[in-house]
Amino acid sequence: MIKLEHVTKRYLKATALKTIHVTLETGKIYGLIGSNGSGKSTTLKLIAGLIQPTKGSIEVDGIRVDRRIAAKVSYLSELDEYYGFYNVRQTIDFFASQFSDFNREKAETIRDYMKLDPESKVKHLSKGNRGRLKMVLTLAREVPVILMDEPLSGLDPMVRDSIVKGLISFIDLEHQVILITTHEIKEVETLLDEVIVIKNGEIAGQCNVDDLRYEQNMTIVEWMTKIYE
Amino acid sequence: MVETFNSSAPIYLQLVERINRQILRGELKPGDKLPSVRDMGIQSGVNPNTVSRTYRELEGMKIVETRRGQGTFVTENHEILQNMREQLKQEEISHFVASMKAMGYSGHEIMNGLKTFLTHAEGSESE
Amino acid sequence: MSAWISLVKKEFRLGLPALLFTVIALIFIVGLAGYFGARHGHGISAAAIAALVLIPIHIFYLLCYMFDSLQKERKKLHLWLHNPLPGYSLLLAKLVSALIAMSITLFLSCVIVLFGLKFSSDNKEIFHAFSWSNIFSTGIFSVINIYLFALDFAIWFIFLWVFYRMLTRRIGGFLSFIITLVLFGVLAYLDNLLSGTRFYEWLTHWGKVSLVDILTGFNFNFSLNHGSHLSVDNTTVFYIGSYVFEAIIVAILFCITSWILDKKIEV
């Protein structure tokens, strides 16, 4: 479970988040959507303990986060920087060595599913394959919290499809909570339980995707557009 | 490819409808086991929680039954399936009639048009 | 533990280009000196002298290595820091791989010097003044001090680096750089001020050892056959206390650095 209370994050020149309150429960897939610069990536980095809130508190499973919450959080960055001197297999090996919850077999299954050649050098991977590698590394951990920052961005439809399907196949919703930020809303619409709209650093709305369709007869895109009007 | 869902109705209801149609077409027979929640999610590109909700909905309609530790099965109660068949027919007809009426056709015109259409359609099928 | 060992391997791999560069530079410099020396008939001596000059430069090795390693990590902070290991483990992994790399070039330099002493006829006079055991004991004493200085510099450097990175996300790069520089200046000034005081003397001037004790001690241990030719009036005195004092300061700096890395660095 993830809990953000009164969280404000100010950077040098701008306020990224203003007094955010969010609680995310295990067993659900959450989508965090909003325009560029609305504070999506900031929220994920805060939960991963990779940046610190200016005010407020962030807890994962009741523990106040800092960098070392990495033990409970698998974070997929929007950057795809890896150690270029490793190949795919060595990168997986390195991650397996660093995280005790890393499931080697699962990593192998996902890598196979994503059709990644274990011997190809990371620095020679195409953007699509780097996106796939990120999925392997993020999903192979048996970890309570998975954070994904723009896992689909800049990838072609085939890669996006394999990533969405891979996600459904390899997450463990009984024990995990997943938070995804994305611009590709249509692609993940069938994937999400709940959607949180963030606007100018504030939570502008949160609801269940099917309830949204049932009660308001709206898709996520329509809802977000309405909020942003 | 991930199957597409239209944007007007909740996804779990669209999945309910999809499964109902599979039963009507005989792709799923009475007593058949439905895929597990996870597999169904993967097949249709849908969140497993949504699939659970779909199965619960179908269970509420008594179209499927969940047997502990075994999975979810299409009911063998033909009466329920017959009712479902009847109900879907009524729904589809009322949709059709409503939109025809909205365009200003009378009940008589609809009836005649349907008769002619079906005669033609069946005629071309038998050729 | 195995996670940490894997991390050391990664760090070593990350620093491998830097290591190769220093090894090649070493060979190049020594080779060049040897080449020009050979034109005047003193090839081996010149090469050995070049290597001898390179040995004390190793006090900057760890600092440069850490600079290179941390700069490479700068764009991958989300990778490096997204790790359950504590900050001191992350830093120690880098330091250990740096020490391994340093030992390789330091060892090479020493071997070249010893080789030069052994096989160059120019060095006959040196053996009139020093025995092999003298050379070894001086060498070992110097090498230990080079390691200690190198560690000292490296830890000061990573402290300043981490301090700078902590500020840079909050107040911008330029101002952070100035503040870091000022902090360094102030700390250096305070250190200087402190070392002039009686208090400092009282704190550190214990465990007096004169260099000659060590040399003759080694001499005595290593070779009973050779006599010592060192004159006692050239004795350098140092205090174990000042080493302990510096070690404590560096340990405190290292703890602060680790804490900042865990709690205050932003990717």
UniProtKB/TrEMBL annotation, chain A:
<keyword id="KW-0067">ATP-binding</keyword>
<dbReference type="Pfam" id="PF00005">
    <property type="entry name" value="ABC_tran"/>
</dbReference>
<feature type="domain" description="ABC transporter">
    <location>
        <begin position="2"/>
        <end position="225"/>
    </location>
</feature>
<dbReference type="GO" id="GO:0016887">
    <property type="term" value="F:ATP hydrolysis activity"/>
</dbReference>
<dbReference type="GO" id="GO:0005524">
    <property type="term" value="F:ATP binding"/>
</dbReference>
<dbReference type="InterPro" id="IPR027417">
    <property type="entry name" value="P-loop_NTPase"/>
</dbReference>
<dbReference type="InterPro" id="IPR003593">
    <property type="entry name" value="AAA+_ATPase"/>
</dbReference>
<protein>
    <submittedName>
        <fullName>Putative ABC transporter ATP-binding protein YhcG</fullName>
    </submittedName>
</protein>
<dbReference type="InterPro" id="IPR003439">
    <property type="entry name" value="ABC_transporter-like_ATP-bd"/>
</dbReference>
<keyword id="KW-0547">Nucleotide-binding</keyword>
UniProtKB/TrEMBL annotation, chain B:
<dbReference type="Pfam" id="PF00392">
    <property type="entry name" value="GntR"/>
</dbReference>
<feature type="domain" description="HTH gntR-type">
    <location>
        <begin position="9"/>
        <end position="77"/>
    </location>
</feature>
<dbReference type="GO" id="GO:0003700">
    <property type="term" value="F:DNA-binding transcription factor activity"/>
</dbReference>
<protein>
    <submittedName>
        <fullName>Putative HTH-type transcriptional regulator YhcF</fullName>
    </submittedName>
</protein>
<dbReference type="InterPro" id="IPR036388">
    <property type="entry name" value="WH-like_DNA-bd_sf"/>
</dbReference>
<keyword id="KW-0238">DNA-binding</keyword>
<dbReference type="GO" id="GO:0003677">
    <property type="term" value="F:DNA binding"/>
</dbReference>
<keyword id="KW-0805">Transcription regulation</keyword>
<keyword id="KW-0804">Transcription</keyword>
<dbReference type="InterPro" id="IPR000524">
    <property type="entry name" value="Tscrpt_reg_HTH_GntR"/>
</dbReference>
<dbReference type="InterPro" id="IPR036390">
    <property type="entry name" value="WH_DNA-bd_sf"/>
</dbReference>
From TrEMBL, chain C:
<feature type="transmembrane region" description="Helical">
    <location>
        <begin position="44"/>
        <end position="67"/>
    </location>
</feature>
<feature type="transmembrane region" description="Helical">
    <location>
        <begin position="237"/>
        <end position="261"/>
    </location>
</feature>
<keyword id="KW-0472">Membrane</keyword>
<keyword id="KW-0812">Transmembrane</keyword>
<feature type="transmembrane region" description="Helical">
    <location>
        <begin position="12"/>
        <end position="38"/>
    </location>
</feature>
<feature type="transmembrane region" description="Helical">
    <location>
        <begin position="135"/>
        <end position="164"/>
    </location>
</feature>
<keyword id="KW-1133">Transmembrane helix</keyword>
<feature type="transmembrane region" description="Helical">
    <location>
        <begin position="88"/>
        <end position="115"/>
    </location>
</feature>
<protein>
    <submittedName>
        <fullName>Uncharacterized protein</fullName>
    </submittedName>
</protein>
<feature type="transmembrane region" description="Helical">
    <location>
        <begin position="171"/>
        <end position="190"/>
    </location>
</feature>
